[in-house]
Amino acid sequence: MNLDNLQISKVTEDVLLVHQIKIPSNFSCSDGLLILPKEGRNSKAIALDINIEPEHINAVVREFGPVSDYVNTHGHMDHIAHVHNWEQAGATIHAPSPESMCLTDIKHFFQSFDWRGVKDFSSIEQFAMLNKFKECENVVPFMPGDKLMFENCIIETISFSGHSQSHVGFFLPLEKILHVSCLGFDQPAPGVDGFGPWYGFKQCSIEQYIKDIDHAESIFLEKSNFLTSSHAHIVKNPDTGPFKYMRNKIIKNQQIVDQALKTLDPHLSIEEKVYELLKNDLFFPKSKMKGFLHELYALWESHTIKHHVERSETLIN
Ligand SMILES: [Zn+2]
Known about the structure:
- With 317 residues, the protein is α/β, with parallel strands linked by helices.
- Helix content is 36%, strand content 18%.
């Protein structure tokens, strides 16, 4: 079924994947799950990481009834921008610690990720405004890995920290659904290409990412019927396509960086190599960007490149 500008797909009889079709900017929205009320399980709907614009949140509540609890997956902008509206609509907001603080204070968003290279806080404020971010009043923190229970609805959170320190996926044991959130499976339809795993902050780790992908794959193949994520279509067990896609993206990114490294003096320091490679727009079309967006993309690309250069040096030595 579809509400205006929303694509709502049934994962199971009473769990829906909600996707906003047209979005105001790149880091404004993420798909998530709506667990409908079910007798003996939950008397009100529960929303998992459905970061869509306020008018669409209101349409979902009108259609499916009030939401008792909302669970966020991490502190990146495309997962925090509109959560305040779920709170306004009556939901208790839960988020993984410590990035939970990003939802209530944009300054924390500035402090918790390493934004060195960005001019100052005003760049972050502009980025927040572009994505229509508003702060929540109250957020209940949980630890990645905690099991959450709302009435009789069980939501196991799984730490996938390669992407971000607090980043979690969800496993719904009764419904046999694995939601990998921002792990990097971002194909909107089979065969359609996306960006893949994203590790553009200092705290991200490619090695941890590879472990997270293995972990997600074993949970999917051993005990799930369905796989969903923040920016992709629904996948049924035993399709291992999402895991191959993510691993291939990391391998290809490594090849892009290794190829570019061949043009440089091998005796340069890692910082000098990153500085030189940043001029090539290896991952983002930065030369077409201006102002704060250019700053942000340059920062993300510099960390992406640095993670690969470091990996390349450890693989050689
Ligand atoms: Zn993210």
